[in-house]
């Protein structure tokens, strides 16, 4: 007897968000990236259309990251004093689909870079690469509320993805995205209810749902990746069942989380049984990302170029339709 | 569970007058009001006032659609009137309703297929409303089989187990709840369920309270839709809350608003 795959019927699909703008669209990007649009659970091509593959971003900072593991030096040490050159290397040598620029240096306790300095860095990076750009603040709301609006203004027309908006601090960034036509990252603390509520709050300010990307907050393998996974899974199921306030693409800072763990950083000398440190770290990062791909992540933000390569390959394999996918 | 707004019905004086004068204002006002309040469909019933139900149904559909984009539930026992209404519906509509009787099922399911409509099937036949759940379920099965033979997908078939006023048919209450649960087992995917909510409180002195409590109990037993007063805000709040409790919608602080706006 022939095998008939049991197919789930979904009421709805995930919305699409376009990142970047080409010259014709009022920006200067060489290409745009569309994320989201899934009409089925991740990679179940036989149940529904998966029109856009998940994309891989590499994360760069506006300051030299002094606390990164030494294994990053061979890749980045020659460029991490210059965000523009760093971005260029990530795209041209390491094949990043897009760049996430994190303004760590704007943190008052690190370098306290001024909003004007940050805006200039954004300009330089935009000039150096043709890919869409994601810009994330330092994580301290009072400073980010000064930096991000200026960044939004400076890069008006580029259709950036700006973050992060949180339940207690979303108005100024939402307004900046409205006025200067950018997309927003809505971040919730591993909490599906706040995730949904924040999307409602942002859309209530009239920023359209198709300009929101959800960051449900993820954790590294061994540090609660399953919680992030569950939230993503629940949001995606909600989206497919017609819950529009969860029907946005999702982003996760995989590299950032993984490279804080002991397992990625501890030397083989200290833990001989764990094996060589860099290989272990790369696999830790790639494995975390792979798990989240299965939960529905759309933008994977990586740090190690080799982990990024592994994940791109994994995505490509998962996007190939099988014999069940007619 | 979603609400099919009951207010555009010739049984109500203002609508009867509107029909008589062919003055669309009252109809359109109720269309808008119910839409904003949280209805997902608008029921359209010509009522006893109309001398020409075919003409009246067409007119009601046309003027309602000028005021609201909601899909309509055409409510009549006159199938010519329903057909006339379906011809002018902009969105796939719902036919309200057909009992488990020949040749009525044949006429209605043919119309449903032609116009891509969903259908409310009543769990009753020539012998009237059954007393127990088993007979209701048996009639529901007849509706399921018939709809299936006409190629109507199960998600477009809404079975009404038929609710009687709780002050006359009190013993029907538990039978209706049991029927709601059993209908879900008749097919996979299962047919949907609907009730005429205000029937439960006919002739009582606590109509709104009884309607709200029944609605919540209905959600707990898998009820999918109700022809009801969409402008009863506490009813909407109660339904939205019961959907949260039953894990149908994902909680957020604004869940009532989200439910109200869900179309």
Quick structural overview:
Chain A is of the alpha/beta class and 326 residues long. Chain A is 38% helix and 14% strand. Chain A has helices at residues 73-76, 83-92, 115-128, 141-154, 171-180, 192-204, 225-240, 254-258, 262-265, 277-295, 305-319; strands at 16-19, 33-36, 55-61, 98-102, 133-136, 161-165, 183-187, 212-215, 251-253, 299-302.
- Assembly classification: heterodimer
Instruction: Tell me the series of helices and strands of chain B, N- to C-terminal.
Output: EHHEHEHEHEHEHEHEHH
Number of strands of chain B: 8
* Unreliable residue runs of chain B: none
Q: What is the ordering of alpha helices and beta strands of chain A?
A: EEEHHEHEHEHEHEHEHHHEH
Count of the domains of chain A: 1
Helix fraction bin of chain A: 25-40%
Query: Which CATH first-tier class of chain B would you pick?
Result: Alpha Beta
Q: Give the N-to-C terminal Cα separation of chain A.
A: 19 Å
Low-confidence stretches of chain A: none
| Known CATH architecture of chain B | Alpha-Beta Barrel
CATH architecture designation of chain A = Alpha-Beta Barrel
CATH topology-level name of chain A: TIM Barrel
Biggest interface, residues from each chain: A-B, 14 and 10 residues
What's the gyration radius of chain B in Å? 17 Å
Tell me the number of strands of chain A: 10
- Spatial order of strands in the largest sheet of chain A: 8-7-6-5-4-3-10-9
Distance between the termini of chain B: 12 Å
Mean pLDDT of chain A: 96
Structure commentary:
The complex is a heterodimer of chains A (326) and B (263). With 326 residues, chain A is of the alpha/beta class. Chain A has a single domain (17-319), classed as Dihydropteroate synthase-like (TIM Barrel, Alpha-Beta Barrel), CATH 3.20.20.20. Chain A has helices at residues 73-76, 83-92, 115-128, 141-154, 171-180, 192-204, 225-240, 254-258, 262-265, 277-295, 305-319; strands spanning 16-19, 33-36, 55-61, 98-102, 133-136, 161-165, 183-187, 212-215, 251-253, 299-302. In chain A, strands 8-7-6-5-4-3-10-9 form an eight-stranded parallel β-sheet. Chain A has a two-stranded antiparallel sheet with strand order 1-2. The model of chain A has no long low-confidence stretch (mean pLDDT 96). Chain B is of the alpha/beta class. Chain B has a single domain (2-261), classed as TIM Barrel (Alpha-Beta Barrel), CATH 3.20.20.20. Chain B is 46% helix and 16% strand. Chain B is built from ten helices and eight strands. Chain B has helices at 13-21, 25-37, 53-67, 79-88, 104-115, 133-149, 172-183, 207-220, 233-245, 255-261, and strands at 2-9, 39-45, 72-75, 94-99, 118-122, 157-160, 192-196, 225-228. Chain B has an eight-stranded parallel barrel, surrounded by five helices. Chain B is globular. The termini of chain B are close together. The A-B interface holds A 9, 192-194, 196-197, 200, 234, 238, 242-246 and B 189, 249-254, 257-258, 262.
